[in-house]
Amino acid sequence: MSDWSQVTRPIPVPNEWTRPFWKAAKRGVLALQRCQSCGHFQHPPYATCTQCVSTDLKFEPVQGRGAIYAYTIMYHTGDKRFASAVPYASIIVELDEAPGALLAGNLLGAEYTDAKVGRRVEIVFEKLNDDITLPQFRLAATERG
Amino acid sequence: MWENRCKVALSGVGFSKVTRSADIPLAAHALVAVKEAVADSGLRIEDIDGLATYPELPATGHAEVDGISIVSVNCMMAMLKLPNLAWHIQVGTVNIGGAVQQAANALLAGVCNYAVVWRAMHNPRGTYQNLPGQYAAGAAQFTAPYGFGGPGQGMAVAYTRWLERHGQSREKMATLAVTQRQHTQHNPHAYFYGTPLSREDYLASRMVAYPFCLFDCDIPVQGAVAIVLTTAERARDLKPRPAYLAGYGQRLHFEVAGRIGSLADYMEGGRSSAKLTWERSGFGPADVDVAQIYDGFSASVIYGLESYGFCKEGEALDFIQDGRIELDGDLPLNTFGGSLGTGRIHGLWHIIEGALQASGRAGSRQVKDANVSFVGASAPIVTGTTFIFSREPY
User: Fold this and answer.
1) Which residues, 6 or more positions from B110, have their beta carbon under 8 angstroms from its beta carbon?
2) What is the ipTM of this complex?
3) Closest partner residue to A69 among B132, B141, B261, by Cβ?
4) Residues of chain A contacting B145 with CB distance shorter than 8 Å
5) CATH code at A64?
């Protein structure tokens, strides 16, 4: 299992588009940007709805259950901040409620070889500091056996 | 069909040495390549009246110093002191293919007569993707905290999607790496000229970002390549046989910054660019005699072959087997070795090879009857451009 204890993750810097995402995450809630005009969820946040170009966008809570859309297993130690964790799985998750919105994460609490396209995952939260809590993923109970 | 089909031609080509380390300033590499391209056309430097490039350094966390780590239009103007300079541009949205297209447009508009386009690439000392930061701002705030560092991982995630959705295995990619390395042995300018690669070497090589092993990634190098573009009429009076530009396209698919891993984005980008190219040129995939498809990371070739229409989605790794992409195969591919063979110079070398094949100037790697020559000059997703060069002006 990848050892994350020595990893120094770069701290996200919220901006005017992304601040609600990080405020919600701090409360243990996954909130994604949703178009109030056509109902489309999108991630990463954007200035306009990427479907209908409306600017009426709000962040709404989602359940945080979905499937691994894609993944990579990192072996290269060029990024020294993550060198102690290799090999590790970086995954891309598509949520059930937000098709097309792709969230990055790591597969926590599992072997990196457990990362497979289509496997069910659920949200967990990893506190980085007093301001920033990082949405992360673990295998769903049905996958953990 | 495009009214300007075959009205512009690629004439001269030039190459600097390709070295692993930056022992001389990048500007010196670029100057060698440009002078060689001009001489190859039989022109004098003072004949050149148009300049275009895409100067970006794709390595993260290194300073862009003009003449050292990039070679801007300004830098080239300072070195060449062109008395007749009439037009120049640096492009942003579609990599070096965009610079070539802009130069073609300038020639068609009649604002210059002989345009030079170059691509100069630097290999900085230390780690190529230098990511020491404590913070992740902008688009990286949603990727860097999870260890997504360089473009290789971004392409690797789409590749696992492709492999597992289509029930394919990465071992089949050995054929691409080995075939391209064989082609490299016919290209003395390439970094890996003189260094063969076996299937066993590929399969035993260390993993970098699964599914990419070392030989799925082009090696960062220092070097430059350059071309002379001119109107078809002028090109016929120059030294080399011209390669006529039958059509071109660029990706039109909208990209959301920071969104990574979407296989659909690669495919849409490639389809949009190829559609324009087929329509403008009047050719289709079945007409193509030889193809160069950008291979900074090997999986880019999969997305290219499928989205440009050479094979169906999910079939690219089967398509490249059984000698099809060898020099005497049905679709000789990356006949100069590709970026995997030459080193990381981006897509201008693919464009050069596409033109050399069309004009019959590819030497010992010349494909027989290469009348219609296709080029996909960058990864289809963000920076993709596509071109068709033809031997005859039709």
Assistant:
1) none
2) 0.96
3) B261
4) 9-12, 128, 134
5) 2.40.50.840
